[in-house]
Amino acid sequence: MSDSSETPKTPSTVKTMQSVSPRSEPVQSRSIKRAQQILDVTSELLETVGLNDLNTAIIAKEVGISVGSLYHYFPNKHAILYAMGKSWLDSIEEVLIDIQEWSLEEMPLSVFIDQVTDINLRTYRQQRAVLRLVQAMFSVQELRELDERHDDMVISQMAKVFKRIGLKKHVRERERIARLYLEVTHSTYLVVVNQNEQRAARTLSDLKLMLTCLLERHVNEVDTD
Question: pLDDT tens digits, residue range 33-70?
């Protein structure tokens, strides 16, 4: 039961989500290049000034266009960040598709772990300001859908991969293991990309050891449920 003294929320106190749809899909070569330039500049600024201080005025200035011209492509900074996040998710999806094409049934577990960590880490390293982008996807309401889509995509696809490498478990159990895999690898990759070469190598080695312990326990173990 609510307290009668509590002030009810009014429409003015409820935050309205901003649109994250681009103004229009660029079709001309010049427009496509300009839209990509906006995304590239935003990546650089996200890394240098951070999410809170990032705004369309700063982005437009660095791109060398007016704010009005910027709005021809994106209505606000969240729409730009959404486009960046969607592009990064597309690259993660490509990695998951590549993994499905491997000869997983014949692949030794150690080789699988080496290859799956290496291909994923390359994708994290290719995305500039990936840590800040991921933080934005988690904390900004307009971008939360991307964070949820990322998790669902990795969990569902890796559950299929785990079946092929020998996890003879019910799909719900494989998804549970895949969620743990996601939480461990995702957080570790975000650390590794910001470490120097020697520390990154040691962290990656520890990650591979953890994955070996996790997966070896379940490979060829039949569910008794």
Answer: 999 999 999 999 999 999 999 999 999 999 999 999 99
**CATH 1.10.10.60 in the chain, residue ranges:** 18-70
Side-chain-facing half-sphere of 139: CA atoms under 13 Å: 8
Which residues neighbour 16 within 8 Å (Cβ) at sequence distance 6 or greater? none
What is the architecture, at CATH level 2, of domain 18-70?
Orthogonal Bundle (1.10)
Q: How confident is the model at residue 19 (pLDDT cuts 50, 70, 90)?
A: confident
Domain with CATH 1.10.357 in the chain: 85-218
- pLDDT > 80? residue 3: no
User: In the CATH scheme, what is the code of domain 85-218?
Assistant: 1.10.357
Total-model pTM = 0.85
State residue 29's pLDDT score: 78
